[in-house]
Amino acid sequence: MIEALKSDDIVNKVGGKFKLCALIQRRLIQLMEGQRPLVDRAGRTDLEVVIDEILHDKITLDFDPSVLYRKSSEAAE
Hints:
The chain is mainly α. The chain is built from four helices and no strands.
């Protein structure tokens, strides 16, 4: 499963290497905090589960740039 990280397919699916890294990191934290996997664990590590979730379109990275703009505007005041 980790072999999927060597392919550009998963990078293109998410929208870039940095977005992929952020998505993996956020989901790993969720799994470590006790959230249930969205795919069958089948004895796999958390990283393998996250990669499988991405490949099966179970998770995506939602990004709303307006949130960043509002926070930076509030900090400037």
